[in-house]
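Pipeline run #58 for the internal structure catalog. This entry was flagged by the ingest filter as a single-chain record with no existing model, so it goes straight to prediction. Upstream metadata was stripped on purpose; only the residue string is passed forward. Reviewer on rotation: M.T. Logging verbosity set to normal.
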Amino acid sequence: MPDISVRVLGALTVIRGGEPVALGGPLPRALLARLVMARGQMVPDTTLIDDLWAERPPRSAQLTLQGYVASLRKALEPDRGRSAPAVLVRRGTGYALAIDPQHVDAGRFETLADAGREQLAAGDADAARHTLAEALELWWGPAYADAAKWEFAANETVRLERLRYDALEDHLAARSECGEPAAAIAGLEAIVAADPLRERAWELLALAQYRAGKQGDALASLRTAREHIADELGADPRQSLLDLQSAILNQDSFLMSGQPTTRAATDTRSAQNPERPTGNIPLALTSLVGREEQINDITGLVAEHRLVTLTGPGGMGKTRAALEVARGRKDVDGPWLAELAGTQTADAVLDTVVSALGLTLNGGIPVLLSILHDRDFLLVLDNCEHLLDEVSELATAILRTCPRVRILATSREALGVAGEVVFDMPPLADSADLFLERAGSAAADATGEDIETLCSALDHIPLAIELAAGQSATLSVRQIIDMLDDRFAVLRGGPRTNKRHATMQAAIDGSFQSLTERERQLFCDLAVFNGGFDLDAAAAVTGHRALLRDLSALIDKSMLKAMGGDPRRYLMLETLRSYAQVQQDQERAEALRRMHISWVVSVATDAYLGLRGPRCLQWTRRLDAEMANVRAALDLVDPHSQTYLEIVGNVYWFWYRRGYADEGMRMLEPAIDAPADVPIATRARALAGRAILSYLGADLPALFSALTRLGEVHSEFDLTSEDRVEQVARGDAAVTLAFFEAGSGLVDPARVHAEEALAIGRRYDSPWTVAEALMSLGTADLRDGDHDSAGRYLEAAVAAGHACGYDWIVASALWIHSKSDIAQEKWNGPAERKLAQMVGYCERAYDLTSWMVALFTLAYPLFRRGLHEHAGRLIGVVDNLTELTGYSPEKMDIIELAAFGSTMRSEIDPEILARESLTGSTLTRDEIRELVHEWAGSTIVS
């Protein structure tokens, strides 16, 4: 083998016999870089052509590729003669670079970086310092600089750069452990200045500052880290950052001991904040039977590999096994479950994962990767088979850039991601035990031999056995066996070539055939729902007669699951849903999709007023449950259609109340360029929603764009029209403009629009519009400095909102009135009492974002009264929720609340603020309510 080494941590360089080799122009160098990235693996010709020329390869691409290979071989092995190539070799249908990975500087760097990290973790900081310094010295420029313009290099370049930062952090951590905190501080400050989202760097910086005797600086660094993460990602800092802050406040002795503290005090995380979510794996509702061996095997694979996919036919128990493995984990930041069964698009996959992680992000996958980079947890991706490309893209990005995140996926097919380990779920060994446990007394008359025969006929598939057990109340075991035998002959052949799949189809078909004709039709019809449904929804969409009777029969026969709640909700397992869709007549399926969309439109229409009235809490919870159905309907219609805009324009208050700014803004974006043939009332309402969600998300350009377009649409209304719907929509548009005009100080146009809305609301009996208009008039007067007039309007808005049960407007008017009191320095009573009442109304309306606003605003008059501890504790409550949800009252209200926050954070003693904020972050809702009652007044509302 020739003496060859390759350098890619900078400009691509090949050293042969101690001398650099001439590699030719950009394309040959890019080809060599692509082969280096493959780490000795074969890269097919087709992949090389696609990577080098993207979508426009020349006609002679294959010959050109061979020419580049020949020139590189000559450069790499000039003395080869007629002997076979030993470096750039042909393998199968492609080429590979046969070079020891340790002769590539990137490979050598990774080896040294891993060794240094292990030395640091083992407590040998001095050895780690030298090893990591050697690793970092290998870098002499950007990784793969020659291939920067080629798309194939992007992921690998990002991966290596992140590893470089990781190694640099480890090196600085080692220097801190070796008694050089000052040097570590300088390096770490440079890292966080360049990338303020690197949580571990902030932790190491704070630790080094503490060791240098700068406790105040350490706490300030941690506070800055939390602010960056909340402001830029709308996300939650990892638990170790909070634990380190607590340890510094407590001056724990281990911080100075020199032991590795890269994830400080993780053993005490639950004690610091037991309510803070560190995973969402649900509790098991039934016992696990016969899977102990597989659970142990999968647990071992997950410990060894970063991506494990459980494959097998539907019903083999993939999800149950994945959840059981996850329950046994002791992750620092998890584990987490993302259920993908109801998702249909790449955006929906991302939204589901982000929501499952308890985050609220703007910016897509790159932003998610930034916050997950330093996290340590297992992510379970459940039911991936229908979105393999989309899930693979997300999984690949996470695995490449988040070294401590592991993924356990369930899918009927492998994801096809590099490094994936596939575990094919085997049949259930103790299937008879499972049947007996699920069937209970209904199987008392069955013989052991019959049960074994049944389980064998079902191929020991857990779902098939559970379905059969569900039938045992209606059919004897022998009858079930006979039905399965009849079905095998019918269901063999066609696409059912996999034996277990065929048997699974037989099991489902046996259950299906046991239904009456009307039950079968209902079973197939109900497959139109995503994420479940209630009785009224089933009646509206299917039009089924004797619905309650047949629905009960489906539940009794395990074809549906009753999920509890009031009203009860029902869920069809995904495998059964897929089966039902296959059985459904296509003409009927299309009709059902139309009825499902119409039902979603009806629900959304009712929700618009429901979310503004006395049943706001019930409607918010209902939409929480129905959003999978709403998203499914939206996926099926043109985003610029009247149907789409009616749905999103009617549910935007839900996204606002729940703090889902990112999803709401994206869903409402088509309103900006809605076609003119969409009714003006529909366009106006959707644009108002776009504006309000942009305000919530603190996206000022989007807010300005939405308001500009809303103003244009508002001017298009026919003032002579007597159509109530159209005129009320005009009033809603006017009051939305008035609200934002008043808030920004444009008091004259605000008054004009508010008076217009007030007149419309009174004429067309729209009390919600009246209340909003009165509040906007009060806001305009507040901005104009007329506090007396503002107070009268705001009191009238409270009364109007109270009369129609519009808790949000009551809370908002109280808030604005409290700001008027604060501007007049009327604290020590008036302002605090209004904000305490606001808290009560927000709790009753299930309005998290406004509840946070009330608490943060209340902190300011308490601060002005000298109650800095009280103010700091409320700031801690809100900051903690900002980290969990991404919503920041200070960013939303850039006038008063931003100023309040700046003043309090700069004038409250840092130690008091840190201590009380930490206390606030641990409080329960009940404890917070008691403090508000004690400090400000009653939160009880009528």
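catalog note: Residues 778 and 790 are 4 Å apart (CA to CA).
catalog note: The chain is about 60% helix and 5% strand.
status: ready for reviewer M.T.
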